[in-house]
C-alpha cells in the first residue's frame, strides 16, 4: 500500500516536472519570437541611422560613461539572477529572496537611469518627432525599457508568490521562465549599446 | 530520482562566473575602443566588424553560460529553436538593410542620403542640355541638382 502511495507521489512529481519543462520551453519560444520584434526595430534603426534631418545629432547627446554604467547595472543584475537560480536549485528560499531583491534593485537602477537619460534628451530637443533617427531610437530603446519594467513587475509578483507558497514546483517553473526573460533582456541590451550608442558615438 | 536529475542539471555558480567575467571583458573591449580611441586609424568597415564581432561573441557567451540552453533533456529542442530564430533575425536585419540600401541608391538618391558624385555630374550635364539652362545654374549646389533630378524623374 505504502509502496503504491510512494509510486503515485513519484509519478505526480514526474508529471509536475514534465509540465514545468514544457512551460519553460514554451516560454523560450515566446521569448525567441519577442527577439524577432526587436530584430524589426533594429532593422528600422539601421535604415534610419543617418536620417537626422536638421534636428539634434546623437553624437553630441550620447554620454558613453553614462551608458557604460547602465550596461554594467544590467550585466550585474543578470549574474545576480543567475545566483538566485542557483539558490532555487538548492531549494534555499532565503537565498532566492536575497538575490532576487538585489536583482530587482539593479534593474530599478537601470530603469531610473534610462528615464533620466530620456528626460535629458527631450530637454535637448531630441524628441521622437524630431527626425526618423529619433523615432527609431525611442522605438527601439524604450521597447527594451518597457520589457525591463515588466520584468521588475514580474519580480515583485514573485515575492508575493514566494511568501505564499514558498519554493514549490509552480514557483520554480515561474522563476525559470523569469530567468529566461531577464537574461534575454541583457542579450538584447548588448545589441542596443553596440548598435545605438557605440556606433552612434563613432559616426 | 527525478529530483536527483533535476539537481544535476541545475546551474552552478562557477559557470555563471565564467560567463560574467567574459561578458565584462567583452563589454570593456567595446566601450574602451570608443572612449579611449583605440580604433582611430581604422576604416569604417573594420570598425563595424570589430563591434559586431564583439556583440555576437557576447550574445553567444550569455546564451551558453547564463541560459544553459545546451543542457538538460530539452537541449535539442532549445538549440533548434535558437538557430531558427538566428536565421530569421538575420533575414530581418540584413535583408531590410540590404533592400533599403539599394532602394535608397536607385530611387531616393536625391533626398541627400546617398550622394554619388559621378551620378550628380552626369545629371548636371543631362539637365543642362535638356532644359537649356545657363552655365551658372548647371553648376548649382547639390540640392539644386537634386531638384532637377526629381524633375527629370517625373518626366
TrEMBL record, chain A:
<keyword id="KW-1133">Transmembrane helix</keyword>
<dbReference type="InterPro" id="IPR013833">
    <property type="entry name" value="Cyt_c_oxidase_su3_a-hlx"/>
</dbReference>
<comment type="subunit">
    <text>Heterooctamer of two A chains, two B chains, two C chains and two D chains.</text>
</comment>
<keyword id="KW-0249">Electron transport</keyword>
<dbReference type="InterPro" id="IPR014206">
    <property type="entry name" value="Cyt_c_ubiqinol_oxidase_su3"/>
</dbReference>
<dbReference type="InterPro" id="IPR035973">
    <property type="entry name" value="Cyt_c_oxidase_su3-like_sf"/>
</dbReference>
<comment type="function">
    <text>Cytochrome bo(3) ubiquinol terminal oxidase is the component of the aerobic respiratory chain of E.coli that predominates when cells are grown at high aeration. Has proton pump activity across the membrane in addition to electron transfer, pumping 2 protons/electron.</text>
</comment>
<dbReference type="InterPro" id="IPR024791">
    <property type="entry name" value="Cyt_c/ubiquinol_Oxase_su3"/>
</dbReference>
<keyword id="KW-0472">Membrane</keyword>
<feature type="transmembrane region" description="Helical">
    <location>
        <begin position="175"/>
        <end position="199"/>
    </location>
</feature>
<dbReference type="GO" id="GO:0009486">
    <property type="term" value="F:cytochrome bo3 ubiquinol oxidase activity"/>
</dbReference>
<dbReference type="GO" id="GO:0019646">
    <property type="term" value="P:aerobic electron transport chain"/>
</dbReference>
<feature type="transmembrane region" description="Helical">
    <location>
        <begin position="96"/>
        <end position="116"/>
    </location>
</feature>
<dbReference type="GO" id="GO:0004129">
    <property type="term" value="F:cytochrome-c oxidase activity"/>
</dbReference>
<feature type="domain" description="Heme-copper oxidase subunit III family profile">
    <location>
        <begin position="1"/>
        <end position="201"/>
    </location>
</feature>
<feature type="transmembrane region" description="Helical">
    <location>
        <begin position="27"/>
        <end position="49"/>
    </location>
</feature>
<feature type="transmembrane region" description="Helical">
    <location>
        <begin position="61"/>
        <end position="84"/>
    </location>
</feature>
<keyword id="KW-0813">Transport</keyword>
<dbReference type="GO" id="GO:0005886">
    <property type="term" value="C:plasma membrane"/>
</dbReference>
<dbReference type="InterPro" id="IPR000298">
    <property type="entry name" value="Cyt_c_oxidase-like_su3"/>
</dbReference>
<comment type="similarity">
    <text>Belongs to the cytochrome c oxidase subunit 3 family.</text>
</comment>
<keyword id="KW-0560">Oxidoreductase</keyword>
UniProtKB/TrEMBL annotation, chain B:
<keyword id="KW-0813">Transport</keyword>
<dbReference type="Pfam" id="PF03626">
    <property type="entry name" value="COX4_pro"/>
</dbReference>
<dbReference type="GO" id="GO:0019646">
    <property type="term" value="P:aerobic electron transport chain"/>
</dbReference>
<feature type="transmembrane region" description="Helical">
    <location>
        <begin position="81"/>
        <end position="100"/>
    </location>
</feature>
<feature type="compositionally biased region" description="Acidic residues">
    <location>
        <begin position="146"/>
        <end position="155"/>
    </location>
</feature>
<comment type="function">
    <text>Cytochrome bo(3) ubiquinol terminal oxidase is the component of the aerobic respiratory chain of E.coli that predominates when cells are grown at high aeration. Has proton pump activity across the membrane in addition to electron transfer, pumping 2 protons/electron.</text>
</comment>
<dbReference type="GO" id="GO:0015078">
    <property type="term" value="F:proton transmembrane transporter activity"/>
</dbReference>
<keyword id="KW-0812">Transmembrane</keyword>
<dbReference type="GO" id="GO:0009486">
    <property type="term" value="F:cytochrome bo3 ubiquinol oxidase activity"/>
</dbReference>
<keyword id="KW-0472">Membrane</keyword>
<keyword id="KW-1133">Transmembrane helix</keyword>
<keyword id="KW-1003">Cell membrane</keyword>
<feature type="transmembrane region" description="Helical">
    <location>
        <begin position="16"/>
        <end position="36"/>
    </location>
</feature>
<dbReference type="GO" id="GO:0009319">
    <property type="term" value="C:cytochrome o ubiquinol oxidase complex"/>
</dbReference>
<protein>
    <recommendedName>
        <fullName>Cytochrome bo(3) ubiquinol oxidase subunit 4</fullName>
    </recommendedName>
</protein>
<feature type="transmembrane region" description="Helical">
    <location>
        <begin position="48"/>
        <end position="69"/>
    </location>
</feature>
<dbReference type="GO" id="GO:0015990">
    <property type="term" value="P:electron transport coupled proton transport"/>
</dbReference>
<dbReference type="GO" id="GO:0005886">
    <property type="term" value="C:plasma membrane"/>
</dbReference>
<comment type="similarity">
    <text>Belongs to the cytochrome c oxidase bacterial subunit 4 family.</text>
</comment>
<keyword id="KW-0560">Oxidoreductase</keyword>
<keyword id="KW-0249">Electron transport</keyword>
<dbReference type="InterPro" id="IPR014210">
    <property type="entry name" value="Cyt_o_ubiqinol_oxidase_su4"/>
</dbReference>
Amino acid at each position: 500500500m505504502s509502496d503504491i502511495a510512494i509510486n503515485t507521489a513519484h509519478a505526480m512529481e514526474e508529471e509536475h516536472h514534465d509540465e514545468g519543462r514544457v512551460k519553460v520551453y514554451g516560454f523560450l519560444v515566446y521569448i525567441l519570437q519577442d527577439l524577432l520584434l526587436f530584430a524589426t526595430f533594429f532593422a528600422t534603426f539601421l535604415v534610419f541611422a543617418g536620417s537626422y534631418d536638421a534636428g539634434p545629432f546623437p553624437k553630441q547627446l550620447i554620454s558613453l560613461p553614462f551608458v557604460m554604467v547602465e550596461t554594467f547595472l544590467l550585466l550585474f543584475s543578470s549574474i545576480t539572477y543567475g545566483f538566485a537560480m542557483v539558490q532555487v536549485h538548492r531549494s534555499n528560499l532565503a537565498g532566492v529572496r536575497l538575490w532576487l531583491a538585489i536583482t530587482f534593485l539593479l534593474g530599478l537602477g537601470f530603469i531610473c537611469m534610462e528615464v533620466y537619460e530620456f528626460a535629458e534628451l527631450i530637454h535637448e530637443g531630441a524628441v521622437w518627432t524630431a527626425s526618423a533617427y529619433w523615432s527609431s531610437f525611442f522605438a527601439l530603446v524604450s521597447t527594451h525599457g518597457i520589457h525591463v519594467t515588466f520584468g521588475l513587475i514580474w519580480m515583485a509578483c514573485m515575492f508575493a508568490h514566494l511568501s505564499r507558497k514558498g519554493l514549490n514546483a509552480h514557483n520554480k517553473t515561474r522563476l525559470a521562465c523569469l530567468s529566461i526573460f531577464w537574461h534575454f533582456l541583457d542579450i538584447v541590451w548588448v545589441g542596443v549599446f553596440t548598435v545605438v550608442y557605440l556606433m552612434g558615438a563613432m559616426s | 530520482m527525478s529530483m536527483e536529475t533535476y539537481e544535476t542539471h541545475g546551474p552552478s555558480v562557477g559557470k555563471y562566473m565564467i560567463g560574467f567575467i567574459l561578458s565584462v571583458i567583452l563589454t570593456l573591449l567595446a566601450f574602451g575602443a570608443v572612449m579611449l580611441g583605440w580604433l582611430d586609424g581604422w576604416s569604417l568597415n573594420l570598425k563595424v566588424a570589430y563591434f559586431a564581432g564583439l556583440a555576437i561573441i557576447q550574445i553567444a557567451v550569455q546564451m551558453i553560460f547564463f541560459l544553459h540552453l545546451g543542457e538538460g533533456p530539452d537541449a535539442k529542442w532549445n538549440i533548434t529553436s535558437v538557430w531558427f530564430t538566428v536565421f530569421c533575425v538575420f533575414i530581418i536585419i540584413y535583408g531590410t538593410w540590404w533592400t533599403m540600401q539599394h532602394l535608397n541608391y536607385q530611387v531616393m538618391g536625391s533626398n541627400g542620403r546617398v550622394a554619388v558624385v559621378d551620378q550628380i555630374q552626369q545629371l548636371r550635364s543631362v539637365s543642362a542640355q535638356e532644359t537649356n539652362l545657363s552655365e551658372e545654374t548647371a553648376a548649382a549646389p547639390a540640392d539644386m541638382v537634386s531638384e532637377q533630378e526629381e524633375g527629370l524623374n517625373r518626366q
